[in-house]
Amino acid sequence: MKNFGLDRVFVFSSKAGIVFIIMFMLGCSSSSSPEIWAEGKPKHHTQNGFRNYPVVPEPPALGVGFYMRRIESSFNLPVVPKSHYLSEEDAITQLNNLNNKNTITWIGQSTLLLKLNGKFILTDPFFSKYASPFPFGPQRFVNPGISPKSLPTIDIIIISHNHYDHLDEQFIKSLPNKENIHVFVPLKLKSFFTDRGYNFVHELDWYETYSIYNLKFTALPIVHYSGRGIGNKNKSLWCSWAISTPFGKYFFIGDSAYSPTLFKEIGNNFGSFDFAMLTIGTYGNRKYGVNNHTTPEEAIIIAKEINAKTLLGMHWGTIELSDENPWEPPKRFKESALKAGFLPEKVWLMKIGETRLLPGKK
């Protein structure tokens, strides 16, 4: 007698139950001890780790509805239009055709491949199928624009924070040439790389800098948090990055909520940026009281406050981590940018795998 798929339902239910338990445990770990300032250190340091400063309200503990929604989304992936991505063959060809130029390639989410001064820089690498410590959980719905085996030799990696969709352990462990790669991380993330065979790891606090290959990297403040499991929320710092070069200044936000003070401060300190890479997705969790990612409209406000000339919308169209329609962010980003006075050609929405010339001096 047929079981009418009951075995599949059981597998689905069992896996969903496991995911729920794990995500619930991770959610429980989001509460932290009182953020007591570590006297004698900058105000974003606490006795137990780090905090946003100026201080922002701590989001409420997430309930069952949030985790059930994430479980549902991991089994019901959206239909991806072919216009959203290039084939890997086309992506590699496009990159190779601009071999001697300063370029940017969107790999997916916040993973970008920059070529600056002849050096390949990878931001917030995420190549795995799941943004999870397990072989299930939030699942990407489009493959990386260029797979790890087809990447050029990486010279530099920059990390904004340690969330799973920004720091892919399997990729970090398996990357060739790791003993020669320079890695830039916020405070307390150095050991993540040295434990996995990296020799040159530069751990920076907000507004600290390090220069190499005629490129200057500056860690800058954002409004976010860190954590990869139970009990380690905010034990490592989070940051955005400025990359200053002889041919241009570039801003990579990583992840952030909007701040009425921090980005104006960055704009005052840096004057302007030729190009800004901004988060425009994962704002749909505000219905649950969570606010740690910008809306597309807030991304445009940030662009104005840091005096960015050309903008790229990232952190969308790759994996579902919140409740907005996955194809809504680029539309709102473009509309808001045009209303704010940006010319259409200065507002970039790239295909996954697409390579373009970076703005700046030639």
CATH superfamily membership:
Ribonuclease Z/Hydroxyacylglutathione hydrolase-like
Q: What is the 3D shape?
A: globular
- Along the chain, the helix and strand elements come as HHHEEEEHEHEEEEEHEHEHEE
Spatial ordering of strands, largest sheet: 6-5-4-3-2-1-14
Tally of separate helices: 8
What can you see in these coordinates?
The protein has 362 residues and is α/β, with parallel strands linked by helices. It has one domain: 4-Layer Sandwich (Metallo-beta-lactamase, Chain A). It is built from eight helices and 14 strands. The chain has helices spanning 6-28, 64-75, 88-97, 169-174, 190-194, 262-270, 296-305, 328-339, and strands spanning 103-108, 111-116, 119-123, 156-158, 182-186, 200-204, 209-212, 215-220, 240-245, 248-252, 273-279, 308-314, 347-348, 355-357. The protein has a seven-stranded mixed sheet. The chain has a seven-stranded mixed sheet with strand order 7-8-9-10-11-12-13, covered by helices on one side. A hairpin with a 2-residue loop joins strand 2 (111-116) and strand 3. Helix 7 runs parallel beside helix 8 (328-339). The chain starts with 5 loop residues before the first helix and ends in a 5-residue tail after the last strand. Residues 1-14 and 19-31 have low confidence and may be disordered.
